[in-house]
Amino acid sequence: KKRYSITLLPGDGIGPEVVSVARNVLKLTGSLEGIEFSFQEMPMGGAALDLVGVPLPDETLSAARQADAVLLGAIGGYKWDNNEKHLKPETGLLQIRAGLNVFANLRPAVVLPQLVDASTLKREVAEGVDIMVVRELTGGIYFGKQRGFGTNEDGHEFGYNTEVYAANEVDRIARVAFETARKRRGKLCSVDKANVLEASMLWRKRVIAMAAEYPDVELSHMYVDNAAMQLVRNPKQFDTIVTNNMFGDILSDEASMITGSIGMLPSASLGASGPGLFEPIHGSAPDIAGQDKANPLATVLSAALLLKYGLGEENAAKRVENAVLNTLNKGFRTGDIYSAGAKLVGCKEMGEEVLKSLDSQVPAA
Ligand code: NAD
Ligand code: IPM
Ligand code: MN
Which cofactor does it need (predicted)? Predict the structure, then answer.
């Protein structure tokens, strides 16, 4: 029997609600596939701040490093919004990404046939969209060392950040993106702001240089403002998108809405070695936390990515994905993806339905 240890980081807000569902899904999937999971729940984010006073305790990071894979819910909430920078839940999130060196964040945005009506775009625009956003995750403006607050000559307070990308940082994310595009439809669009920003100029130069190694991949470049517009004009033009940390953050939230809801989008954060970090792209949704309203499917699908990319358990991953599709085929919807005629359920009930669908193994339509 195969055994894996999984570190769970439920976090804040809806995080614990959606991670609890994903944990049950992993457990049952394991028993159906002959895999045994041991789960270790560790505090991070606001939960860790309340417990031990830091957003990423050393014990949490070392547990994550020793695990075979890490599943995270979400962090953050009003309570900690005015904390100093080093005592923010979000700082803990950046620390664990950096601590695991997971520089490549894959954010697939797929419009499922079952959810076309949940998209805010017209059916003919949304139908068939299948985009992979490859977001650089451990560099750029989030991590620029020159940052802080000050007061200028005129006595005005200011805040500043810097975007820095070294050639090797661009190369390693570009490599992941070209390899990803090659396994998909062979199209890669690099999104930058090379008309204005030096960091983007270097980014574009390095991506172009690497293209010579991938003659089978059709490379294009787009400025981020245009990309934001093109995503809602004609999202089907995109296959794989590679972009920096901040643009990837913004464009993936935008892409999520094409698929119906941010509550559907999973992500996989991978490094050169060591455990991967798997998390939904959404946040802690404080507006619906504790109300059993959250859509757990982004986290369940993140668990599927964990099985696939984190553990190489392709069959188990397929089983989870099929269970999600079957649950949708049966008409179950949380509020965020509800459309007329569907069966409205909460987070828990959606989780129970996914478990039933795992068990029944009805092939997805
Ligand atoms: P958010 O993603 O938490 O919520 C945005 C909107 O989407 C809200 O209306 C929310 O109710 C809805 N939503 C999000 N996930 C949902 C789900 N699974 N099901 C149904 N509806 C869902 O973004 P925000 O409001 O900008 O941020 C809230 C907090 O989360 C902040 O503290 C922020 O820093 C944090 N955050 C954390 C992460 C993370 O942990 N990776 C990601 C984004 C934001
Ligand atoms: C995300 C979030 C985080 C990010 C925040 C909470 C630090 O928005 O995971 O997309 O910007 O990366
Ligand atoms: Mn985000």
Answer: Mg(2+); Mn(2+)
